[in-house]
Amino acid sequence: MIENENEIIAKPDLKTFSKEQLSEYLEELGLVGYRSDQVFQWLYQKGVTSFDEMTNLSKDLRAKLNEIADIKRANEFSRQESEDGTIKFLFELDGPEKYKVEAVLIPDFYDDGVAKRITVCVSSQVGCMFGCSFCATGKMGYFRNLTHGEIVDQVQAINELSEERFGKKITNIVYMGMGEPLHNYKAVVESIRIISDPLGIDLSPRRITVSTVGLTKQIKQLAAENLGINLAISLHAADDVKRNKIMPINESLNLEKLEEAVKSYFFQTENPVTYEYLLFDEFNDSEEDARNLVKIAQWVPSKVNIIMYNNVAGVELKRVREDRLNRFMKTLVKHKVTATVRRSRGDDIDAGCGQLAIREGQERGKSLA
Ligand code: SF4
Fold this sequence. Notes:
The chain is of the alpha/beta class. It has two domains: 2-68, DNA polymerase, domain 1 (Orthogonal Bundle); 75-359, Aldolase class I (TIM Barrel, Alpha-Beta Barrel), CATH 3.20.20.70. Helices cover 35% and strands 20% of the residues. It has helices at residues 19-28, 33-44, 59-68, 136-140, 148-166, 185-196, 216-225, 240-246, 255-269, 287-297, 322-334, 355-359, and strands at 2-3, 8-9, 75-81, 87-92, 100-109, 115-121, 125-127, 142-145, 172-175, 208-212, 230-234, 273-279, 302-308, 339-342. The chain has a ten-stranded mixed β-sheet, covered by helices on one side. It has a two-stranded antiparallel ribbon with strand order 1-2. It has a two-stranded antiparallel sheet with strand order 7-8. α10 (287-297) links the parallel β12 and β13. α5 runs parallel beside α6 (185-196). The longest helix is centred in the middle third of the chain and has 19 residues, at 148-166. It is globular, with a radius of gyration of 22 Å. The structure holds iron/sulfur cluster. Iron/sulfur cluster (SF4) is lined by residues 128, 130-132, 135, 137-138, 178-180, 213, 234.
C-alpha cells in the first residue's frame, strides 16, 4: 500500500502484468528492455517474493520498486507424500479469504529409481462451477479465478523441489487440477506463455496439456493462439444421455457441438487431441459405450486415456472392476483406437482433485449443478 495524505492506494502486483505490460510499466520508470527481462526472470524463474532479492538491480531501483509495486505469491501451505512418490501440495493464495488450491507432482521412475518423467498438475481456479458429479472440486462450487502469476507460482515452487529432490526439472505440465482452465482463459494462456518462456520456466509447449470439459468457443479461440500445446477433452461418457447425467455442461454444449469444435481445432492446429475417459463401474463401461467412444475417437486423429477413478466420498460412481476394464479395452483396441490405461496415483493420500482443499474446510461457492 502507498499512503497518501488522505488515501491509501494499493500498489500493483507485478505478477498480474503480462510480459508486455511489465515491460511497458518498467519502461515508464526509465528502465531499458534488458532490465525488464531481469525482473521477469526474478519473478517467474526464481520465484522471489521481494525486490530486495533482485540483486542484479541497483539499490536505488530496488528501493523505488519497493515503494511503488508489490509481488504476491501463492505459498505452499501443506504437503502430502504418497508411497508411490506422488506429492500433493496445497497452496494458499494471497488475500483475506486465504483460499487454497491444489497441485500435484507425479514422478515416473526408471527401474533403477532415477526419475524419468516428472509431471505437475496445476489448478487454475479456486473451486469450479461446472459441477461434474464425480469431482470433489465440483462439489465446492466456484470462488475465483487464479491470476497467471498464481498458476506459475505452483509450477515454479514444484520445479524447485523437483530439481532438489530428483536432480532434474519437471518434464510435463497438465492443467487438470482444480477448476476448468478454459473458464479462466486469459490467465491460463498467459501462464502458458510464461511457463514456456526461456526466462520463465522454459518448458516446451509440447509438454503442456490443457484439459477442458468442452468449452467449444474457447477451444476454437485456443486453436487460433497457435501455442503449440496439447488439448485434452474430459469426455467421461460417450453419449449425450450419460454425459448429461454426470457433466451438466453437456446440456448446453453437447457432443455434436463438441465434435464441431474438436474438428475445427484439428483443422487449424493439425494436432491430435486426447480424450480423458474415467471408467465407472456399470455406468459407462459397457460394450455399447466402448463402441460410442470408438466413433468419437474417429472424429479427428486422437488418443484415449482410460483413467481409473479414485473413489470420492459421497459420490455413487465407483472405480471400474478389472474384468470390465479389460473387456472395454479389447473393443477399443479391436477398432484401432490408441488407448492407454492410466492407473491412479497417490491412492494413500487425498488424491482426487479437490479432496485436500475440502478437508481444509473450503466452503461451497457458485455452481452450474
Ligand atoms: S471435472 Fe473439471 S470441470 Fe468438472 S467440476 Fe471438476 S474441476 Fe470442474
